[in-house]
């Protein structure tokens, strides 16, 4: 049997820096591989990751069907409750029927028209950030461009005042620490503190919007309703009551939109520029034809160095998969980074090919939990890459990048460049 612990080392810096060779060994070892340190089943192949993302015998949560004890799991410590209250009411960690209801409600306020209306704002913000970056002669691409853009966009959507926006990224970083494998007590304490502070902040902001609605997403979420998929100006007499978001669901949704709405974009931007700087021929081709190549380039950069490396699912009932019995109560770890480098699905997956058109990467997930914000993320990535390509034609690396500590949410902490 393959020694998965020797291949899969998410706490080791050298593995986090470049997990792709180890993924190749895991794929060669099998389709379902037990990983004793976490008790999870690793799924490294693209076809299997794609199938299990859509398999309703698995779920992001089990609490819609079982108690912790019935499922054979230990309840989280009471001290962690503020984090779990915040996290467990967001649609990413809910299953139907609650997931269906909340996603439908959020979708009413998060339509393609909303994204289309945001396009000028996104381009304006990207242009300003890049203009300042170029005027300074460069700097840390992560802190100066990659992070501020998506945070500013989601803050603009939510209607968060400018003066409060510096609070968002630290809260998000502290909360997202809990998504790593086996987070420690120090990480949990930071997440709990951030959850309490963020919750109280949003509770007050929602109260203000109830009194004075605006054009922002929080106001739209307050007004959103679910009448079974038939939106209209009002229910017919005798129809069942509309269902609104509870206040906790609204708070959790806002936090999810911030966290999911910027973490992937930040890391795709930083990982993507690092990939381009290591592949000067591809960067030169992109500079020569940005309008033609940018759409496929953004997809390829998300595939090539995947920002979310692992996504977990609980096994809700005993199943057989790839000849292996997966018992109820176990957990699968879907290895997005490995799936995106599977040669069974991608020609020459270790090669960065910005013109790649057959590119069904799983970076945005699949199935009912497919990323609702994918169109906005693509808009932001097109804007920031496009501005930097146009205004920083001599952009070059001046120091070795500093990698962030996380593996599940994987990116750079610093990327220093000159323009």
CATH superfamily: Cytochrome P450
Report the biggest beta sheet as strand number plus sense, adding barrel if it closes.
5 strands, mixed
General shape: globular
How many helices? The count is 17
Instruction: Look at the helices and sheets and give the structural class.
Output: alpha+beta
Count structural domains. Answer: 1
The SSE string, one letter per element, is: HHHEEHEHHHEHHHHHHHHEEEEHHEEEE
Spatially, the strands of the biggest sheet line up as 1-2-8-5-3
CATH topology: Cytochrome p450
- Gross CATH architecture: Orthogonal Bundle
Briefly, what CATH class?
A: Mainly Alpha
Tally of DSSP β-strands:
12
Task: Catalogue the unreliable spans.
Answer: 229-240
> How large a portion of the residues is in β-strands, by DSSP E?
5-15%
Cα(first) to Cα(last) distance is 51 Å
What is the alpha-carbon Rg in Å?
22 Å
* Averaged pLDDT: 91
Can you give the helix content as a percent range?
A: 40-55%
Structure description:
The strands form 4 sheets. Strands 1-2-8-5-3 form a 5-stranded mixed sheet, sandwiched between helices. Strands 4-12-9 form a 3-stranded antiparallel sheet. The longest helix has 32 residues, at 247-278. Helix 7 (112-135) packs across helix 9 (148-158) and helix 15 (290-304) crosses helix 17 (374-391). It is globular and about 60 Å long. Residues 229-240 have low confidence and may be disordered. It is built from 17 helices and 12 strands. 41% of the residues are buried. Helix content is 50%, strand content 9%. The protein is α+β, with helices and mostly antiparallel strands. The protein has helices spanning 4-7, 13-17, 20-29, 46-53, 81-88, 98-109, 112-135, 141-146, 148-158, 168-176, 185-211, 217-223, 247-278, 280-288, 290-304, 336-339, 374-391, and strands at 33-35, 40-43, 58-59, 138-140, 310-315, 319-321, 324-326, 331-335, 396-397, 402-403, 412-414, 416-418. It has a single domain, classed as Orthogonal Bundle (Cytochrome p450).
């Amino acid at each position: 049997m393959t020694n998965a612990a020797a291949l899969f080392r998410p706490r080791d810096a050298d593995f986090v820096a470049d997990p792709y060779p180890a993924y190749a060994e895991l794929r060669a070892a099998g389709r379902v591989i037990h990983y004793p340190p976490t008790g999870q089943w690793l799924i490294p192949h693209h076809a299997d990751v794609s199938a299990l993302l859509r398999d309703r015998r698995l779920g992001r949560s089990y609490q819609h069907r079982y108690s912790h004890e019935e499922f054979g799991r230990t309840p989280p410590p009471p001290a962690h409750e503020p984090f779990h209250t915040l996290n467990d009411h967001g649609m990413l960690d809910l299953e139907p029927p609650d997931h269906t209801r909340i996603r439908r409600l959020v979708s009413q306020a998060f339509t393609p028209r909303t994204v289309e209306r945001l396009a000028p704002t996104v381009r304006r913000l990207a242009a300003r950030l890049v203009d300042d970056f170029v005027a300074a002669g460069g700097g840390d691409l992560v802190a100066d461009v990659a992070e501020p853009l998506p945070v500013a966009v989601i803050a603009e959507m939510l209607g968060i005042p400018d003066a409060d926006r510096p609070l968002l990224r630290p809260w998000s970083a502290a909360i997202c620490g809990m998504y790593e494998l086996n987070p420690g007590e120090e990480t949990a304490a930071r997440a709990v503190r951030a959850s309490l502070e963020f919750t109280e902040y949003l509770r007050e902001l929602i109260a203000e919007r109830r009194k004075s609605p605006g054009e922002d997403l929080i106001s739209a979420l307050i007004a959103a309703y679910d009448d079974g998929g038939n939106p209209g100006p009002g229910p017919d007499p005798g129809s069942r009551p509309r269902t609104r978001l509870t206040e906790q669901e609204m708070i959790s949704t806002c936090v999810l939109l911030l966290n999911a709405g910027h973490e992937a974009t930040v890391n795709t931007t930083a990982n993507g520029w690092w990939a381009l700087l290591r592949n000067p021929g591809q960067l030169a081709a992109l500079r020569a034809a940005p309008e033609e190549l940018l759409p496929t380039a953004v997809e390829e950069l998300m595939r090539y160095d995947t920002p979310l490396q692992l996504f977990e699912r609980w096994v809700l009932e005993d199943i057989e998969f790839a000849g292996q019995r997966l018992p109820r109560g176990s957990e699968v770890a879907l290895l997005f980074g490995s799936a995106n480098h599977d040669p069974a699905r991608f020609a020459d997956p270790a090669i960065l090919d910005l013109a790649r058109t057959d590119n069904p990467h799983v970076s945005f997930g699949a199935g009912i939990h497919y990323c609702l914000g994918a169109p906005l993320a693509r808009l932001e990535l097109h804007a920031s890459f496009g501005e930097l390509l146009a205004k920083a034609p001599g952009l070059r690396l001046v120091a070795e990048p500093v990698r962030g500590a996380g593996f599940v949410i994987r990116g750079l902490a610093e990327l220093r460049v000159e323009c």
